[in-house]
Design goal:
CATH superfamily: Gcn5-related N-acetyltransferase (GNAT)
Strand content: 35-45%
Radius of gyration: 16 Å
Strand order of the largest sheet: 2-3-4-7-8-1-9-10
CATH topology: Aminopeptidase
CATH class: Alpha Beta
Number of helices: 3
Largest sheet: 8 strands, mixed
Structural class: alpha+beta
Shape: globular
Helix content: 10-25%
Order of helices and strands: EEHEEEEEHEHEE
Length: about 180
C-alpha cells in the first residue's frame, strides 16, 4: 500500500495557570483508565503500551460518556503518519491522537483542552512549550488548534510504502539537517 502524508506542526508556549478547568483529568496509568467508557476496544493494547512508555492521557468525561481524549508525550514519540520517531526538544510536550466523541463535536472541546494543557502542563517535569500536529488536510483540527492560539511551525511530508517512509520532505521541529 502506498500513502502520502502531510503533517502540520504547531506550538505554543505554556501559559500561567488559571483556576477552573477541573473538567479535564490526566490519567497516567492503565489501572486508572476508564476502559468501560470506550466504545471501541481495538486500541486497548496500544493504549496499555503507551502507558508503559510513560505517556499520559487527558480525558473529559461527561456523565457516563468519554467526551474527549488526547495523549501527551515527552522525550520521543512515534509518528505513524510519517513512519518516524520524533525526539522532542528538552522541556517540550506533544499532544497527539486527539479524539472528540461524535456526540460532543462542535462544542469547542479541542481548543478548550489545548488551552487547559498549556495552562496546567500535566507533566512530571517542567514544560516550556506544547506541540500538537495534525494532517494538513484536517481543516477542523487546524481550526481548533489555531483557536487555542497555537502557531503553525512546520510541515513534513512522507511517502509511505507498506508502512515505511521511502521519501520525506521537510524537517520535524527541532530536527537537525
Amino acid at each position: 500500500m502506498i500513502a502520502l502524508s502531510r503533517i502540520d506542526f504547531f506550538h505554543a508556549a505554556t501559559a500561567a495557570p488559571e483556576s477552573g478547568g477541573d473538567q479535564f483529568v490526566v490519567v497516567a496509568s492503565a489501572n486508572a483508565f476508564p476502559w468501560h467508557l470506550l466504545d471501541d476496544h481495538a486500541h486497548d493494547n496500544a493504549y496499555r503500551a503507551r502507558f508503559r512508555d510513560g505517556a499520559r492521557v487527558v480525558l473529559r468525561i461527561e456523565g457516563e460518556a468519554l467526551a474527549f481524549r488526547c495523549w501527551l508525550a515527552s522525550g520521543t514519540l512515534e509518528i505513524d503518519e510519517l513512519a518516524t520517531r520524533w525526539s522532542l526538544p528538552t522541556g517540550d510536550l506533544c499532544v497527539y491522537d486527539v479524539v472528540t466523541s461524535a456526540a460532543f463535536r462542535g462544542r469547542g472541546l479541542y481548543p478548550e483542552a489545548l488551552g487547559w494543557i498549556r495552562r496546567h502542563t500535566p507533566s512530571p517535569a517542567p514544560v516550556r512549550r506544547v506541540w500538537v500536529y495534525c494532517s494538513a488536510q484536517n481543516a477542523s483540527s487546524r481550526r481548533g488548534i489555531e483557536k487555542a492560539e497555537f502557531t503553525h511551525t512546520a510541515q513534513c511530508s512522507a511517502l509511505l510504502f507498506r508502512g515505511r517512509a521511502v521519501w520525506r520532505h521537510g524537517r520535524l521541529p527541532g530536527e537537525r539537517a
